[in-house]
Amino acid sequence: MEEKEHLRSQHQAQLEELQNHQQDKIQDMTMNHEVAMEDMENSHNSAVVALREENEAGLRELRMTHEHQRKAMEENFEQIRLSLQDQVDTLTFQNRTLRDRAKRFEEALRRSTDEQIVDALAPYQHIEEDLKSLKDVLEMKNQQIHEQEKKICELEKLQAQKNIFLEERVQVLQQQNEDLKARIDNNLALSRQLSEENANLQEHVEKESKEKKRLSRNNEELLWRLQTGEQSPRMLSPSSSPAHRGSPGATSPSWPQPLPR
C-alpha cells in the first residue's frame, strides 16, 4: 500500500508539474503576443501620424512659398508695365509735339512773305539740337526697355525653375504617401498573421487540455487497478470499471499508458 501511495503521489506530482508547465507556457505566449501586438500598433500609429504631419507641413510650406513668389512677380510685373506705359506716353507726347511743329513749319512755308518765313523758322532754330536730344532720350528709353525685357525673361526662367522644384517636391511627397500605404498594408498583413498564430495557439491549448484530461482518466484507471490488484485487462468487468462509470460513452477500457517524465 505504501508503494501504491508513493506511486500515486509521484504520478500526481508529475501531472501537476505538467499542468503548471503548460499553463505557464500558455500565459507567456499569450502575454508576449499581446505585448507584441500593442507595440506594433503604437509604432504603426506613431509612424502614420508623423508622416501625415510632415506631409501636411511640407505642402503648406510649398503653397505659402509659391503664393509669395507669385504675388512678388505680379507686383514686379505691374511696376514694369506701369514704367513702360509712362515711357510710351512720354514718347507719344513728344512725337505729337514734333508733328505739330512740323505742321506749323509747313504752313509757314506756304506763306509768301519772307517775314512770315522768318517768323515761322524762329521756333526751329535749335531743331537739330532738339532732334539730337530726342534721339538720345529715345536710345536711353530703348535701352531701359531692353533691360526690363531681359529682367522679365530672367524672372520667367526663375519661375520655371521653381515650378520644376515644386513638381519634384510634390512627387517626393506622393512617393512618401505610397510608401506609407505600403507600410500600413504590411502591418495589416502582419497583424492578420499574428491573429492566425493566436488562433493556432488556442487550438494547441485546447488539444493540450484534452490530452491532460485523457492522461488524468488513464491515471485514475491505473490507480484503480493498483488498488484492486488487477492482473489482466480481461479480469476487469465493464460494469465495475470506474472509467466506464465516469464516461458512459466509452466501449472498452484502454491499457495504462506509461507515466510522462
From TrEMBL:
Record InterPro entries: MTUS1/CCDC69 (IPR051293)
Region (Disordered): 1-25, 200-261
One of the record's GO cellular component terms: cytoplasm
Keyword Coiled coil: yes
Basic and acidic residues bias locations: 203-223
Domain of life: Eukaryota
Protein name: Microtubule associated scaffold protein 2
Organism: Paramormyrops kingsleyae
